Amino acid sequence: MDITETLAPTSDQLDAVDLLGGPRTFTITKVGKNASAEQPVNIGLAEFPRVWRPGKSMRRVLAAAWGVKADAWIGRRVSLYCAPAVKFGGEAVGGTRISHLSHIDGPKKVPLLVTKGRSAVFTVQPLKETAPPPAAMSLGDVAATTDTDTLRTAWQGSPPDVRAAIEARVAEIAALAQGDTAQTGGE
Q1: Any idea what the Cα angle at residue 49 is, between residues 84 and 17, rounded to 5°?
Q2: Which of 31, 66, 132, 164 is the 20 to 30 A CA-CA neighbour of 37?
Q3: CA 12, 17, 18, 22: dihedral to nearest 10 degrees?
Q4: Are the CB atoms for 157 and 134 separated by under 8 Å?
C-alpha cells in the first residue's frame, strides 16, 4: 500500500512539506488575489491541485525576474524546493523557495532582507527545460486574456476554432494599443 496520499497536508495551498521529496517544476496557470494580508497572492499551478502563495521574499524574486505585472507570468515555469533553514518566528521551520525560473537569460541575483537589518543575495538560475505543450484555451479564456505572448503560446495547442479566436484577440489587442498611441500623439 502506498501511503503518499495520506501524507498530504490538509492545507488549501502548496506547502514546503509538499516538496520534501525534492524540487518540482510547475507551470503558472493564473495569478489572483488572496484575502490574507500575509499571503496576498494566489498562483495557480498546472501540475498541482492547490495554489502556491509565495511569501514576500519569493514575490520579490518573481517581480525582479519577471516584472510586477503578474498577468505576464502565466505560462511561465518555476522550480520550487523546500529550504529547511527558512525561519518563522525565529525558529527554522522550512519554507518554499525558488531555484529556477523560465524566461530569464542567466542567473538572477536579488537582494532580500533576511532578518531585521541584515540582507543577503538570493540567486535564481534559468530554467533550461522546455515547457510542456500548452493546453488549449477555452474561448472564454481567449476573450479574457490581454497578454499576447500567452495567446501566441496557447495558439500552438489549440483547435482551429480557438486558433481563429486567438488570432482575432491578438489583432484586437494590437488595434487597442494603436488607438492608445494615436490618442497620446504617438508618445
Answers
A1: 15
A2: 66
A3: 160
A4: yes
Give the separation between CA 110 and CA 82, rounded to whole angstroms: 19
pTM of the predicted model, to two decimals? 0.65
Judge whether 52 and 43 are in contact, CB under 8 Å.
Answer: yes
| Cell numbers 497620446: residue | 184
On whether the CB atoms of residues 177 and 169 are closer than 8 A, the answer is no
H-run or E-run covering 166: helix 160-183
- Residues 119-164 have pLDDT tens digits of 899 999 999 875 555 566 888 888 998 888 788 777 766 777 888 8
Do β-strands 118-126 and 95-101 pair in parallel, antiparallel, or remain unpaired? parallel
